[in-house]
Protein: Chaperone protein HtpG
Amino acid sequence: MSQQETHGFQTEVKQLLNLMIHSLYSNKEIFLRELVSNAADAADKLRYEALTNDALYEGDGELRVRISTDKEKGTVTIEDNGIGMTRDSVIEHLGTIAKSGTADFFKNLSGDESKDSQLIGQFGVGFYSSFIVADKVTVRTRAAGHSSEEGVQWESAGEGDFTVENIVKENRGTEIVLHLREEEKEFADDFRLRSIITKYSDHISVPVEMFEPGTPAVEATEEQEAVEATEGEWKAMNKATALWTRNKSDVSKEEYEEFYKHISHDFTDPLIWSHNRVEGKQEYTSLLYIPSKAPWDMWNRDRKHGLKLFVQRVFVMDDAEQFMPSYLRFVQGLIDSNDLPLNVSREILQDNKITTALRTAVTKRVLGMLEKLAKNDAEKYQSFWAEFGQVLKEGPAEDFANKERVAGLLRFASTHTGEATANVSLADYIERMKEGQSKIYYIVADSHEAAANSPHLELLRKKGIEVLLMSERIDEWLINHLTEFDGKQLHSVTRGDLELGDLEDASEKEAQEKLETESEGLVKRVKDALGDKVSEVKVTTRLTDTPACVVAGEGEMSTQMIKLMEAAGQSVPESKPRFEINPEHPLVARLNDEQDEELFAQWSDLLLQQAQLSEKGSLADPSAFIKLMNQMLLAQLK
Structure:
């Protein structure tokens, strides 16, 4: 029964061990934080399981973590009396990394130690951090509710494999023995470990204990009274009260930051946080954090997100996504409710009125935090936007009730700043709107350069009208759901009519009408030449330096939306562009004078394809376009 088996580590574990030992060397003491954090989680899980089966306590309901050292042997032992593990779960949890997207994570590693250590920090190293200081690790564990013969011992030197065998273990829970490397023996010192525990683990809600030796009896002398011997005892090194239950004024900045690292497994400090206790119709406490760095797997669909859920201070579940909308999936933290039942399941949470009310309240709390940050510290908000802006852009489509608030938090590049950084809010834009302007103008393109240099901006630039420049893949989708802000319509400059309204003066309108009348013959010739390649041909005044452009008609899909749909594998109904020509451009004026109808048709086709290339960034048949262009060039050179 006690057969020993040797297993090879999953490839990713080997990579991670190798990276960790080298990249995290500057902050070795975090191994204790990680192991104590895991031990506290094991205690939390047992407390929850015991709600429905108190036999799991096996007569010992005092949950705790104990840390001891042996200077002579050079070992550190971290022991808990939490949920423990079976043989199968030991092999699963201590031999593999069960995170989806792990392979992508390793692709992102650069070989630069400082950058990699940050990535590893976001990945969450947990148990494997033991090997930063140990050249051998022994784990003895037994799952709560199992017999003492079902203990398991796991051992590894962190190279390529580990051994597993059955042992007898009287007490439930897990004991981890670190055999320290020669150069890490400083950690076998009680005083050193105490200082690490108070630094990293003060916020943990189970006692983290170390043994305090007793004192021998002292006999009475003339100078001193007799002192009785005292017995050694285990003493808690941390406050051992749930941090979120304490008053805000009693919790230091450092404690909030360490607690964030404990619940998020992120190495970096959070950007901001909000700690609130609500009483009245509903009673709950929330502690919400905005990270300073996006998690490496934020775009992975399988990635778990959500808050830790506690009910009356008892841990119930991780990643309770019911309390946080998807567009705020970067938020970390917890919610502790007095109103939910202790045995609440994910299914019950799904359609529970209390859940809905808590989700609404917590969402508003996060939006309030971000609004306050944007108002009081634009630079810090900008760093938040750089990390999480694209996720926030999912908000207007997902959260109708808070659409306007989310829209107020969005940031865009703009012709006003002349830079690619997205730092202009819709409120900033409205504040700068010209007298008589009733719309917020924007353009969506494949890149910032394509948006900034689009011919569609020529007239607006000439008039000094600001245009928002959008170039992220999600922007077209966002704009389909965000059609107005603060009573002002958002209007695409690539749409049929610019709808300048009061920004057009009478003389301009008159000139436009005159130009249209004078160009009627040219417009008809171009339409006849292009046939069904276009839906219609019109004269434009939106262009000043470009001969022609294509625009989407009313109710038609924009170029960017078509690209999005095609990228998602969806078939898109064929639509023909509206072709607008600028009769005042020398090329179009030259075209007007062309008597040869065949040449005229070729020039018209060339101008159309040029306009399509400028708009879409690609053509269905680029070689045909090059052939036509070369043909026209040769004709001019003769």
Summary: The chain has 22 helices and 22 strands. The mean pLDDT is 85. The radius of gyration is 34 Å.
